[in-house]
Specification:
5-stranded antiparallel beta sheet, extended, alpha+beta, 46% helix
């Protein structure tokens, strides 16, 4: 900008006047000369006034220029004037400060020298748009100052001279805003990752109750994919399976009444079955987003509700058990009886109401008994174990009895409570037996402890041998993931010796930092993790086919629960996974073959009946025709010799053949019916319930009352444990077994059949034992095959009863087997789930 200059007028105008040729005024001159002088004086005054006004205007211009320069140079925005070739023609102090270059050196430099290379194209596109449109344009780029520090900037540009390709741009540092945006994006991703990894099912709904986000836990819990859930209203999910009136009201209140709901329990039947849900809902707000969102947290408490019901049932069961125990039961708090069962009435002669509220020392007459009990009481309160003792007590009717008791603290009770069991041991014999049992138990425990010590030593050697000879890769790590120990299999997989591994960090040997957070979580939280058939690709051996590993990471804890080490177990199960897939395909093929076989049996059992009907019908026709032919022959005038030859054929041979045909047809029909029964037995689906086997076996026995009476058999049914199964199918199992026991009884001795049972291993095992003819060793392997009858003369049948027993047992995930010797009887065992 050009600077205006100004010189003050000199007060002595004489020289000026002389130089200009104007005569000086002379007050003594009169006439025209005087007038001329006066006019000149007036003009001079006017010139001085004009000069003063001009000076004031100049001062105002100087002040305005200073203000503009200050605003331009010290503005918070960098102003650049750019010319051809992106050369900087002018820049304010703020702009030169942002680039870290003095203004005098910056002018003449190229603006593009301060651009990050990847933003050069964006800048040139921005410049072209500014010059072509002659309108204000903006863009965001990244620049670098003289010190190499990068920063994000926003350009606001305008072209003002197309002929010289000059344009101006305002540069604003937006690094802080960019950092805030990046931080906000990271926060959003972090929040979404938290929602995604939470084990609690969560969904986010918009103001139209459409699913915006469904986390993994929701999809896995309710068996729905994310694509099926997101974009749908929650009430339309799974064929409107989520159209729950309570949920509608809850979301309506949250959305329109701005309320929040916590722990609202809902019972609803979904397509997969009834479920109990715990709902929590509240509104969410996003910065810059005016939509109302709802966060809905869903907890499936179905299993917990069932467990609570089972717990209540268990509590009622144990309460009834305690009430009906043959021992007196006391509950004590601070040495005072707070509850006792009704047995105290007969044992002590006092009612429960009379004893409740009394100090426990009420039962002790002798000081030594009281002192002994107080010591045991203190030890029990300290939770040191179960303590026993004896004392004498005089009942309300003055009868003296001896009482034995045990006392222990109730775990986790607050305030501390004790439970005391007492029983009458007055008779010396009972006391002696109890003492002997106690001594035997002590001796047994001592021997068991000695045996346990030997077993522990043997087990240690055994585990050492297993560790070194197993295919599983085992390693023991400290809390900094350094090797403490590794077996040979693990060392071989690392191409290091065991000695080289000791002390080294696992992640230095295997460059796989992706697993480090999981290792740290196990170390910090003390919870083991395990993975089955996890895909694995050796990074140092990319040519190898991907494999599958079973691996676990188990924390080793000290006495105080702190994690002291980690056990890493790795097993290559690639062959097993591949084999499992082959087995799956083979099973599918087997199912298909079984279905075909069942279809063949079904068709054969129906289609073969028609020929049998025809055979039986024509046999009847032959029988009638034979009778007619015999009558005709009697009337015909045949010779006696001819009649003698024809008579045996018509009266003996034909009837005998027809009898055999009818017997064979009956047998074939029976076999076809049996095949159909076996086919149907394999397709029936059991209706599983808890069965009272005592009642069921009694029903079975009633159905054989006549056969038992006719055979003169003795049937003994012992107390049987319950099981889980289909009533009709289990009924059929034991009907067939009891029927076989009656059919194949030994005629040389009275029949005796015993049915008993026991439990163990999650199954109830029942035995049907008889003293019949028995089964030889060579026939036992074929016993459960179709049409196998090893003593056809003993009883009628098709040989399918035990086949049906085996099929029904298999349908219940159970099994059946036999123990037998020829001539001594048989024991058939049936194992069913408890």
């Amino acid at each position: 900008m050009r600077k205006l200059t100004y010189s003050r007028p000199r007060k002595n105008r004489t020289a000026c006047d002389r130089a200009s040729g104007i005569p000086a005024a002379n007050p003594n001159v009169e006439g025209s000369a005087g007038s001329s002088v006066r006019g000149h004086v007036l003009n001079k005054a006017e010139l001085e006034i004009a000069d003063e006004a001009l000076r004031c205007v100049y001062l105002e211009l100087e002040a305005s220029r200073d203000r503009y320069v200050n605003l331009y140079d010290f503005a918070p925005v960098g102003y650049f004037t750019l010319g051809k070739g992106d050369v900087i023609l002018d820049v304010n102090l703020t702009g030169s400060s942002m680039l870290g270059v003095p203004r005098r050196k910056l002018i003449g430099s190229k603006f593009t020298d301060f651009l990050v290379p990847e933003f050069q194209g964006l800048f040139h596109a921005h410049k072209t748009e500014v010059l072509e449109t002659s309108s204000t344009r903006t863009c965001e780029i990244q620049m670098v100052n003289r010190d190499g520090a990068r920063f994000f900037a926003s350009l606001l540009s305008l072209s003002f001279d197309k002929s010289t390709v000059q344009w101006r741009t305002a540069l604003v540092d937006i690094s802080v805003r960019k950092q805030a945006e990046l931080a906000a994006e990271e926060s959003r991703q972090f929040a979404e990752s938290i929602v995604e990894t939470m084990h609690e099912p969560l969904v986010v709904l918009d103001d139209e109750l459409t699913v915006v986000l469904a986390n993994r836990a929701f999809c896995s819990t309710f068996e729905i994919s994310r694509g099926e859930a997101e974009g749908q209203t929650i009430f339309d999910l799974q064929d409107k399976g989520w159209d729950i009136p309570t949920l509608r009201q809850l979301l309506w209140d949250v959305l329109f009444k701005n309320t929040s709901t916590e722990n609202l329990e809902v019972e609803h039947r979904f397509l997969s079955g009834p479920r109990s849900l715990l709902l929590n809902a509240r509104q969410l707000f996003r910065d810059g987003d005016k939509r109302r969102l709802i966060l809905l947290a869903i907890e499936d408490i179905t299993k917990r509700k069932r467990a609570e019901q089972e717990l209540r049932d268990s509590e009622q069961h144990y309460a009834a058990l305690v009430r009906n125990l043959p021992h007196a039961v006391f509950k004590l708090r601070d040495g005072v009886i707070t509850w006792c069962n009704d047995i105290v009435r007969s044992m002590y002669g006092y009612s429960p109401k009379e004893l409740t509220g009394k100090d426990i020392t009420f039962f002790y007459d002798r000081p030594e008994d009281t002192a002994k009990f107080l010591r045991l009481f203190a030890a029990s309160m300290a939770g040191e174990g179960v303590f026993q003792g004896t004392y004498s007590f005089r009942k309300s009717d003055s009868t003296l009895i001896d009482i034995s008791y045990s006392i222990a603290r109730i775990p986790n009770s607050a305030p501390p409570e004790l439970i005391c069991l007492a029983y009458d041991v007055t008779e010396r014999k009972q006391m002696e037996v109890a003492r002997q049992r106690l001594l035997q138990e002590v001796d047994r425990q001592r021997k068991q402890a000695e045996k346990l010590a030997l077993n522990l030593r043997a087990e240690k050697d055994f585990l050492e041998t297993i560790m070194e000879n197993t295919w599983t890769k085992l390693a023991l790590l400290d809390t900094r993931f350094r090797f403490i120990r590794a077996n040979s299999a693990y060392a071989a997989s690392t191409s290091h010796t065991r000695e080289e591994l000791i002390g080294r960090n696992l992640f230095d040997v295997f460059d796989n930092d992706e697993n480090r957070p999981m290792f740290e979580r196990v170390r910090d939280e003390g919870q083991a993790v395990e993975f089955h058939a996890a895909p694995f690709q050796c990074r140092d051996k990319p040519w190898k086919e991907p494999g599958y590993w079973d691996w676990t990471l188990i924390p080793v804890k000290g006495d105080e629960g702190q994690v002291e080490a980690l056990v890493l177990s790795v097993l290559d199960v690639t062959d097993r996974v591949n084999s499992a897939e082959e087995i799956k395909q083979l099973n599918a093929e087997l199912v298909r073959k079984n279905q075909e076989l069942e279809q063949v049996i079904y068709v054969a059992s129906h289609d073969l009946r028609s020929p049998l009907v025809n055979v039986r019908g024509f046999a009847r026709e032959l029988e009638y025709s034979t009778s007619d032919l015999l009558g005709v022959l009697q009337e015909c005038g045949l010779s006696p010799e001819a009649k003698e030859k024809l008579a045996p054929i018509l009266t003996e041979h034909f009837p005998e053949a027809l009898t055999h045909i009818d017997s064979s047809v009956t047998k074939m029909d029976s076999l076809l019916s049996a095949l159909l029964r076996v086919s149907r037995a394999g397709k029936s689906v059991p209706n599983i319930n808890v069965l009272d086997m005592n009642d069921l076996i009694s029903e079975v026995r009633k159905g054989f009352e006549y056969s038992i009476s006719e055979a003169g058999a003795a049937v003994v049914i012992e107390d049987l444990p319950p099981c889980r199964g289909d009533h009709d199918q289990v009924f059929q199992i034991f009907s067939n077994l009891l029927d076989n026991a009656l059919k194949y009884r030994d005629p040389g001795r009275p029949a005796r059949i015993t049915i008993n049972g026991s439990t163990g291993g999650g199954h109830s095992t029942y035995c049907v034992e008889d003293n019949g003819v028995g089964i030889s060793e060579q026939n036992r392997p074929k016993l459960f095959q179709m049409f196998q009858r090893f003593d056809p003369d003993a009883a009628q049948g098709e040989g399918l009863g035990l086949v049906i027993v085996s099929k029904f047992a298999a349908l219940h995930a159970g099994r059946v087997w036999v123990e037998s010797c020829r001539g001594t009887g048989s024991r058939f065992y049936v194992s069913l789930p408890t």
